[in-house]
Records
---
Amino acid sequence: MLRPFTLHRPETAEEACALLARLGDDAAPYAGGTELLLLMKLGLLRPPHLVDVKRIRELGALSDGGRLTIGATVTHRALERSALVRERCPLVASVARHVANVRVRNVGTVGGNLAFADPHSDLATLFLAFDARVELASPRGRRELSLDEFVRGPWETARRPDELLACVRLTPQPSRAAAYVKFGVHERPTLGIVVALGLNGDGPEAARIQDARIAVGCVGPRPARVAAAEARLREVAVNQVDDVVGAVGDAAAEGVDPADDMHGSADYKREMVAVFVRRALRVAAARARGVEPVSRFPYAVVA
Amino acid sequence: MDGARAPIKIHLVVNGRPSDLEVAPHALLLDVLRDAMDLKGAKRSCDTQVCGACTVLVDEMAVSACTYLALEADGRAVLTVEGLAAGDSLHPLQQAFLDAGAVQCGFCTSGMLLTARAMLAETPAPSREDVLHYLRGSLCRCTGYRKIVEAIMAAVETAR
């Protein structure tokens, strides 16, 4: 059961921000409700006011102006099925296809997922590896933050009470080969790994890795890139990645900050980070060479 | 710009029948269907969008009625398991579930049927993988899923 609340349905971002500014901590922005309503049912959150942001047209838009702009109220399903996203950032569409279950994807939104900052999120990890930036609107104007600046910790973001998450922007990188692998036995992933390999242009077999991104999500308080693991991949030829997967996996495991919880002990998670970084790296390297790898792992999803 | 706490008038079509209702902003679709409309097919089970027992279709889209505000259905068509059969003739999916023995305790069945229907509307010729992907998050604690998947694949064959 939900406790009663007052519902507001602003039509513009300005109206929404004015409401949020006036109501302060008494208000929560509401879109799909897939996270918010759960916590309200449990009584863990009791906002007397909800500000429904789904009528704000700009928040529902997906557009391409050099950078791909994903409005905050775009659903996971819309992201999965968008021809624009599939063409410009195929991994984003593919990861969206595997968020939670179809009912959550039909209703849940990209902005809600990010603004909630549940550590067991797929999108935050993905967007971190892709250098995505979020735009926040407020009565004072707009500001853009990197994902790293925005997500501060478990259920904690840099969004101020009068700010509205308007959109996420990312720059498509067609020369990058990437993979997302997640693993878990509960509804939410136990870990999620993104490996994105920026290559030089020497053809699929001779290409070398110029810029590797490895982001690890779900095991720590927030998604994090592991610089030491990324550094091990610099100037490695894509057809020789097998020689370094072990070292890269170990470096990633050392670089994370796991916690004990119902998904497993910190030691277990560290070990799984090594395992799944190796796997994700092999998948990304195969894709870099134009080969779709055979990748079937128990309780894991490869996007 | 003042918000609403008092009941809001909504108009929706439930199982083909137009309905005018007044719902409080915090009323959940599941409670409105079960209590106000006496449609008990959708079940409250996990209450956290994990299990699928409360699945109904809103404009042919599967949603968890346990975590969906009733007022979001304003202006939309809601389908529950009670609206699946045409009079006395079962929907092909219902018949296939019966034929395959895909029902044991039955608690998940309405959600499974509606989820399958939503999938077939999008993907009329699904692979077994497509079915398994779409049914993720629809939990059955009796059948082990095999017969449910068989039933859906059989319904696809029959429709060809």
---
Amino acid sequence: MRRSSLIVALVLAAATALASTAPEDLFRPSREQAAFLSPDGTKLAVIVRNDDIQSIEVIDIADNARREVFSTEILKADETAITSISWVDNTSIMFSVYELVEGVAKLSDTRNIRRILFTSVTEPDNTIRYLQSRGLVLSALPNEPDRVLFAVSGSKSYVYKIQPSRLHAWGFRRTKTSKTDNGQITRTNRIAEIDGRAIRWVADINGVVRAVMRVAEGGKIEMMVRENAETEWSSLREWNLRAIGKRMAKAERRGTVEDIEDDPENRIYFPSAIIDGSDEFVIIAGKDDERAVFRYNYETGEKTTIYENPDAEIVDVSLSYDGQAVQEVIYYEDGAIRYFYPNSEYQSVQATLSGKFPAYSVQVASADAAGQTFVANLSSSVQPGRILAYRVATDEAVTLYETNPWLNETELTPSSAASVTAADGVVIEYYLTQPEAAAPVPLVVYPHGGPVGVRDLRIYDPFVQHVVAAGYAVLQINFRGSSGFGGDFEESGRGQFGVEILADIESAIDAVTASASIDGSRICIVGRSYGGYAALMLPTRSPNRYRCSAAHAAPTDLGLLVAASPDGGRTSLREFLVGEVGDDEVYGTLKAQSPVYQAAGIDVPVLLSHGKTDKIVDLEHSLRMKLRLERRNANVDWLLFEEEGHSFSEVENSVAYSNRVIEFLGSHLQ
Amino acid sequence: MLRRWPIAVAATLLLGGIAHGEELRYTQGYLLIDADIGRKTVNWKLNDEFAIDELPIGRTLRLVKLEKGKYQWQQISVPFFDLPHLLDVSDDSRWAFTIEGGRVNYVGTLIVGEVRETDNVDVRFVNRLSEVLDRFEAEFPEEAAQYELAYSGRHRDDFLNDYLASDDAP
């Protein structure tokens, strides 16, 4: 079973805060990072971040009263991270915390420890309890308060029903006579067992474990089911992984993969829930490169669609508390995150709130059992997250909190979406964030990384807002290869590193500079990773079009990228890179598409920057580019981040980078 | 350790680098060893005859004479406390290289770093040719004047030749 919860923009939290002209404010991480609604909809458990400390606060939706129920300070670890919260019942929660425990000399026994903790959110003393045994909490039990299903996998695998309030309290000192998890991991509490390693258990709405997927002998995966807790397991289907591999390889050679990949013998679906009163399961699975929800009969392979959206690629689907219905569907539209609710009550509330707040994406979660109070999250390119309670009776929406309230003092600029048709007929979506100005503004082209399987969104982006606040329009392009526009579109980007993708970017530039509000004579390109590559290559394609180029962590020598990838031990990465940029035997082609070998054509000032510990694109790429440009006395600025990898991990480095780029743009776009 | 297929190598010639100004025999080339060691000392083995013991913390650049031929790095050991970390690369073609006679062969930079999140030592062998250029000339001026520096790792790399021959040179 899967519990429905209100995830407050994890994606947005990752992109983190943004937007004021003070970059420290723009880049400051959200205070509230994720929120989870109680089953009865009356309380919200929120992961809160204050500097290096995380805590969990519980908000009473009726009066917006807050109470801290946990802080990572009690763990006394060097670094900690609360990763998720689930409600055990309406008065208690469980949550996962990762602790980084430094070893001797920071190396030999340094490790991440994952802890599963529990606490009441209503008891005054608020004791923190913990699981000593290593395993996985499958779910809470909707009809049994203070009970969860806990799975332990090994050569034999077990599921136990345990009572969180009886676990040892944090800080409990074990003695010779004390029992692990206070004696709850026992045969008496065992409600399911199977030979072999279990990789997925499924319980029905009554908490009876009805199905298990296990690793069987001979490299097989086997789906086992049973009618109830008293009956024996019986095998429903098994898959021979080696045989599947051979069949798929053969089909690939013949070009018949599509004919056999949906065959139940070849496709392994992992069940998310079992349909009440039937032998069918709910699966959330890929379908034509989109995500969809099905009822599935493992025995016959019969598949019935519960939900699909042919018009948009589905990002995520969550099921209702009992796992029997689709609760929420998340998808992208015009670069914004959108939410769909099959339930008509939710639809109605969403429509009402969308009317009140037309500029926002509205995510709705159910509130009290009577369906009178709902909790919603509003987000947009100028709002990382605003959580509010909506009361149906009074048609009143009350803000519970904003994730980045300090941004309210800042004027942020919303992004707009548009599209352009490339010369070969491919439609390319792009986003423009443009400051209000009386005169035409310079343009900063900001292609995303990847390039394949990654995309831009119209969500709060601190860097974009910082650049716009400095007086420049920012153009982001979902060129071919970007994710979210279907499998064919994504595949069409492969091998187009230095060809069609660059053409797509220029098509979008053409479209944007056709507007009188953009000064097409003042354009710079700024990018990271693949975006940095594009920033270096585009001036060679259109020599007089750009004023400057800023490339961070950019691959500049495609031969080096393919052949000498810094993670060279990983065959899969090498294969991935070959797939991305083309066959590495075609070295001449790679050279023709590599900025270091095209340096003579880069006739604009360049800002090069790189993280010294980058394992995706080695520092050597930027060093080579720097050498080549310096050799011809080109105008090169250089910025090295000693402790950073491929992406920025420290906020102050994001700020330093952003400031340097703004300064660089100011020198060449004014 | 390093394994060389065609010709055995005398250990006495290899250990500890070379004296400046020594001439190469026509059957020999230089191996330019570059290492960036972030923690503890590291032992780097080429073959039974040649190993570099106790590469110190920091950056090391050494020249070693080797007979022409194909080689394979064998093993990197990073001793820490009583839990030595051994990386066997004897079957990994990315750690193979060729010594061409009469020139200085750069084959890659060994990087050994701290990894806080995992139990593993971070060992990488990367092409940092552009970093090595100036340092080679500064630390081995006589050899730099006398012998051509070239990349001799497993993969094709035209960077140095193109860079030196570029007509956009000042």
---
Amino acid sequence: MRPAFSSTRQAVAFLVLLSLLLLSPVLAGKWLLPPREEVYTSTPLHYAPSHYLFDQIYREKQDIDIAFIGSSRIRYDIDTPYVEKKLSEKLGRKAVVVTLGWSWSGCDALYFITRDLLQNRKVHLIVFTEELYQENAPHRAASYWFRYGDDAGALKDLSLPLQSAYYYGAVLRIPRNLLGLIRPNDPRLQPIAAAVFDHGDPTDMLGAAFVPFNFNENPGTKSLFVHYSPITAADPDEVCVYSKTNRLFNFEHSAAPLQLHFAHEFGEVIKRSNTPLVYLHLPALSEAKAKMISEREYWPDVVGTNLTMFGIPPATMFSGLNESEIKKLFFNPLHLNENGQEYFTRLITPGLLQIYESKAER
Amino acid sequence: MNPKPNVELAVSILIVVLSLIALWLATVAPQYFADNQVVYQGF
């Protein structure tokens, strides 16, 4: 059989090449990484409105009064301009309220993006949400946000297969990082691609998404959106804050180890910046009749720091509505459409502003 | 004594070990980042 290499020298050259490729994240370290903002100018827009994240994290400088942070659900469920308007009225000045969201769920995304935000902006109150999926896997865009030179320490205590997954992601990104070092991405190009957001550029909506789609409608279809304002008995006073005495929260204790790990890392970032933290429960269609607010974990334990948990029990929010009326508030089983966003935001805003008043640093 | 056979053996073992690691990374890790919606955007 013909040998794989014609000489020992050729075999050694192959060995060196293989070693360089495998060790490239370690060899690159911090020195061969472009500035951190390149993460956001190079992340494809279907993973996140990364041009908006870039603007908010690196370009804007003023303090943020309230930052909503989380997966796509927070973008679809919260009418950010409405909250900003109400907070401005309360404060007697122009408030700064933003939503920093991304596609798909994952506590690693929550950790990376919150850390970058708090390293660059002062935030008076963070309101976050996270489904804590049972999936023990990195966020599918983690290879963009995780850089070995910056973040190797964040993997400590994870299992070897999970560490190797992040490492592999870092290997994948080496060519892009090296190119970013030579030729920075132009952030002005990202908004051009914002045409991918079929419901408008998030920049115009303070990071939120307004979705005029009927339930389970394909975003590409053009059927007439049915505007609907539900008439229910639900009242903003029924929005509840968790305490040991009220029995309106239920905890399943079923989150995956990777999610718990990064939830803890997220908590460490929050502690270092001393930022007041609020967890907001968002409604899902599957729980529309539930009398209690169901969470996978008891968040203060998971995050390891004091936080306020609040939400409205789904059965209270949807009281008096039948199934088809409830569906008029959703775009799909996990995301509210424009009707639901308007209804939900108006229900929770008074309670949220009270929390802001009591917790936010001035 | 000719050291060449030892060098060849060592290089061969290292190539096999590193290839196995590369194979492991390339088969186990990508499942986490698999996404059929990804459109390659070039560099």
---
Amino acid sequence: MTAVDVPRSSTIRPHRGLVGTLASTDHKALGAGLFVTAFAFFLAAGVLALLMRFELARPHLQLMTLHGYDELFTLHGSTMFYLFATPIAMAAGVYLVPLQIGAARLRWARLGLAAWWMVIGGGLCMWLGFLTEQGAADVGWYAYVPLSDMPNSPSIGTDYWIIGVILAAGAAIALAACVLATIVTERAPGMTMLRLPVFSWTMVVSCLMVLTAFPALIVAMALLLAQRQWGGVYTGSAGAFDYQHLFWFFGHPVVYVVFFPFLGAVAEAIATFSGRRWFGYKPFVVSLLLFAALSMSVWGHHMFTTSSVENRYFSLTSTALLVPAGIEYFDALATMWRGRIRLATPMLFALGFLVLFVIGGVTGIFVGSPPLDYHVTDSYFIVAHFHYTLFGGSVMGLFTAIYLWWPKVTGTLLSERLGRWHFWLTMIGMNLTFFPMFFLGWDGMPRRVADYPAGTSWSTLNALSSAGSALLAVSVLVFLWNVRRSWRRRVPAGPDPWGAQTLEWATESPPPRENFVGALPPVRSYAPLQDLREQRELEAQPA
Amino acid sequence: MTDTRHDYDALASLYLPIAAAVVLLVLLLVVAFAWRYRARPAHEGRRPSRTHRAPRTEALYVLVLAAVAALLLWRTFTVEARTDRDASGAGVQVSVTAAKWHWRFEYPRAGIVQRGTDEHPPTLVVPANRTVDFTLRSLDVIHAFWIPQRRFKRDATPGFTSSFSLVFPDTGFRRDGGECSEFCGLRHTWMKFHVRVLTPDAFARWMRARQSGAAA
């Protein structure tokens, strides 16, 4: 097979309308549908965050009861992880990986389709708890035993929530399997594993981690359901510790699962908008694999204060993470070095990612030291730390991906002017929301509290943080406005508006059903379009 | 005798400057590169660099990273060995019990118990500059015993007793000086205690007064 040459007209006419959308096994329709679903959950969980920030803007209880607050932070965290971050990372892979590797389809697409339905079903399960008499789950997103056991948390919303988590985790595993199988079996001629584009490599490690870590979550949650119905599973202190091990064996890797793909998007953006191919590709790939392997061995750092794990071991593995992380930063900066940099919106978000994520990274090394962690764990310091990794890292990377691939997926352009507004509002709002939390936590404010004492510096810091969250809400509205505007004006993007480097930009925007019509460009490296560009320049040079 | 706050501050004063330097370096390089190498019409003909590997530089850089990690771990392990040393048994004994959503402090040798109510949390009373040996347990769900001023926290897991030692150098009363930091259900927000640090003499007087039945 030298060229992907699938006949354009299939004998079976695809369904249209809602049935067509919900039943399409085209990876692009599936990827887009899953992406929109996950983004809707992002907005919903964002509204919960805003409600919490409204409550915390001033001391004492104003808007809600203590119980209502518990429901909010439980559903905020679990929606963000299970229904937004993981599915949207997988959606990006489902849509983009076949295009990047020159494939015509997603492997096991019907399994992927089932996964999308599972995400929707799981989400409904988790959120329908709000309609029950005792409300939604109120045990925190990691639902520690024995707090999450029936005598302590008898609400049926918690049972719905557990089922929802299991469905969403199953969906993640199915999607990771599809993407990984596609990469293994559907690569175009010439596309060896060491010519895989950087984003696709980040999807490989992300999927490997899903396949290793998420089964532990399903086990933890299924046993929790059994514990709640019949008891006898997680008993005594051993049961409490076992649950934590099972949970964090999933719970730490998941933050890398939802980080790597966006690191990949940032890498593609930095390479494209610097006019250079990604620097140090092979060490980068090795460091990614090392990063993934190492991050499977750090889960116990969530348990430093339990006196039940070998703190030194987990401190060692956690601190060692600075080595692969340092390599990623070296490669990013070296790619910009002596480049020809265009500060288009995707590049702005990519640079924002570099600056914000490093704050989450260095504070992560800080809490990787047990004596330091003893003080700041379960305080607002930790909340600040992981929002710098998850918002500063994953969400900034997500917007990099959205602005970068929007023209490819929709065939239209977004407004650069609104994009810049979106970027700067996000940068200011993000830092205003989360930076004060470092001081709050250091000063002794625990997480997951709806109230705090009046008349201290905490009032000012919390007010600042709440103001920042309002700014973040405005920034998201600007983005949605940009989307609406692009939808209406339909400025055609053309196949490759950015001068990008990978195969998805060698086909129409949006790509046709079979992805590529006619012969693919030759694949001689991880940046085949950059190869062609450099070759043309070479030929144009006077001898 | 381990002053946890002193140890914490010493360790943090190694970690934080490195952290700040790394963040500033990244910020500086990102801004500098974005400015220095931005596409200008005047440089239309200038081609971006084609160099895309530097294995020796990267190998050297990895060594630097590993050295930084080793330094941080060495200091961490040194401090942790002190913090985690088991209770000596020679200090003042305080047995802490956490239960939804209250703290209880017992001084087993003196037969004193400090209890609180929903409105009035109990007060942990300790002598200054003496080792205080704590045992910590929970009766229901997981709580966590946190005294921010001491930069120290430990989980209270039901069915498991953990022990640790703290020293309180400064006398005085701290309203809500101790908190539960592990989410433990409805009234987690308000699960606090006060901390009163007395001079050793005053502490002895307080103990005698409590034993003879006077209020705290």
